[in-house]
């Protein structure tokens, strides 16, 4: 996921985009073709790009008015995993974390990462069978080990985190 289309901007078909990439200039340049979820809304070709008061605005080819722009609202913009650049050590894409088993340092299984939230801080959503989901801040002090190849990560939760 590199972004999500928000509300229309103006009456000429521009859309706002909630950016979810560290490199918006590369992903959202004129001529860029973006796959979508749901897939039947795309692919979308970027016609023009501009920033307005900190918000990314896109004009999409074939989207000429506010109504057409509104039909794209909540469309997720995605790129193929093969098109992603390599990350530095200790950096991960969301798709690498989702599905990892979550363990305590003693090996006790806590659950499975079901999503990554990008709120004020990055949070791992950990699905735990038979109880509520757990939100784990994705910081080194709490998540010291991520082993994508082995399919798990280790957490050292502060007191009370597992009881919430």
Any overview of this molecule?
The protein is mainly beta. 9% of the residues lie in helices and 41% in strands. It is built from 3 helices and 12 strands; from the N terminus they run E-E-H-E-E-E-H-E-H-E-E-E-E-E-E. The protein is elongated, with a radius of gyration of 19 Å. The model has no long low-confidence stretch (mean pLDDT 87).
Q: Concise description?
A:
This protein is mostly beta strands and 164 residues long. The protein has three helices and twelve strands. The chain has helices at residues 24-27, 66-71, 94-97, and strands spanning 3-9, 14-19, 33-37, 44-52, 55-60, 76-78, 101-104, 109-118, 122-127, 134-137, 145-147, 152-155.
Shape: elongated
Radius of gyration: 19 Å
**Uncertain regions: pLDDT < 50 for 5+ in a row?**
none
What is the CA–CA distance across the termini?
A: 29 Å
Number of helices: 3
Name the average pLDDT: 87
**SSE ordering:** EEHEEEHEHEEEEEE
Give the strand order, joined by hyphens, for the main sheet.
1-2-5-4-3-6
What percentage of residues falls in helices of 4 or more residues?
A: under 10%
List keywords for this structure.
164 residues, mainly beta, 6-stranded antiparallel β-barrel, 12 strands, 41% strand
Topology of this protein?
Layout: E1 3-9, E2 14-19, H1 24-27, E3 33-37, E4 44-52, E5 55-60, H2 66-71, E6 76-78, H3 94-97, E7 101-104, E8 109-118, E9 122-127, E10 134-137, E11 145-147, E12 152-155
Parallel strand pairs: 7-12
Antiparallel strand pairs: 1-2, 1-6, 2-5, 3-4, 3-6, 4-5, 7-8, 8-9, 9-10, 11-12
């Amino acid at each position: 996921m590199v972004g999500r289309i928000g509300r229309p901007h103006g009456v000429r078909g521009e859309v706002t985009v909630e950016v979810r990439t560290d490199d918006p200039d590369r992903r959202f340049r004129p001529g860029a073709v973006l796959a979508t979820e749901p897939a039947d809304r795309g692919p979308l070709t970027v016609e023009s790009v501009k920033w307005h008061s900190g918000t990314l605005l896109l004009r999409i080819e074939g989207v000429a008015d506010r109504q057409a722009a509104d039909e794209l609202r909540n469309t997720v913009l995605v790129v193929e995993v093969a098109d992603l650049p390599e990350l530095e050590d200790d950096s991960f894409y969301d798709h690498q974390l989702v599905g990892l088993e979550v363990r305590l340092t003693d090996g006790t299984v806590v659950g499975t990462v079901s999503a990554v939230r990008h709120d004020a801080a990055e949070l791992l959503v950990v699905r735990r069978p038979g109880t509520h989901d757990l939100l784990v801040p994705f910081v080194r002090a709490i998540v010291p080990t991520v082993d994508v190849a082995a399919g798990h990560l280790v957490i050292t939760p502060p007191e009370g985190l597992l009881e919430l």
